[in-house]
Amino acid sequence: MRKYATALFLAASLALTACSGEGEPKAGDSPPPTKEDIAYYDCLKANGVKIKHTDYGAPRVDKDDPTALKNLPAAQEACADKAPPMPSHPPVDPKMLAIAREEAKCLRAEGVTWYPDPDPKTGTYPEGAVTTEQSSELRTKHVEAVRKCRQEKRPGGDGALGG
């Protein structure tokens, strides 16, 4: 479960820096929470993790609460039997994988030496490949490198961070 949560966190962190060209997501873009989702997050809450709900009702860990983050690993372990099934990865688009690899190579050349390559089978990043601090650093210290490396490389992208 930790691997799944870390992969989701990494994907979300990296997505925050990406340029989608599609605008903000809408409530209808996400499915409603399942019974399994609700049971899992109720368990996390019972194990000391603060939970908040999105505008469309989905439970999420309150990442602004340091206590929630501190308690999260133990709570995930305690609630592993209630964790919703992991979604299967769709096949990776070879063009998008090539773009992600090129971006990683460019970022490393620009001084972001820790930036990982995506997994060639899933297109995701390895568990623990990027820490919370590194993700924050990417959005603050390496803004120009991200702009340079993402400029017109992603569909709909204009090189601007966050949109």
Task: Give the key terms.
163 residues; mainly alpha; two-stranded antiparallel sheet; 6 helices; globular; disordered C terminus
Question: Mind explaining what this structure looks like?
Answer:
It contains 6 helices and 2 strands; from the N terminus they run H-H-E-E-H-H-H-H. The protein is globular. It is mainly alpha-helical and 163 residues long. Helix 2 packs across helix 3 (66-78) and helix 4 packs antiparallel against helix 6. Helix content is 45%, strand content 4%. The longest helix is centred in the N-terminal third of the chain and has 16 residues, at 2-17. It has a two-stranded antiparallel sheet with strand order 1-2. The two termini are 31 Å apart.
Write down the overall mean pLDDT. 77
Helical percent range?
A: 40-55%
Biggest sheet descriptor: 2 strands, antiparallel
Q: What is the tally of beta strands? A: 2
**Strand-residue fraction?**
under 5%
What gyration radius follows from the Cα positions, in whole Å? 17 Å
Poorly predicted segments: 1-25, 157-163
Say what oligomer this is: single chain
Class per helix and strand makeup: mainly alpha
Number of helices: 6
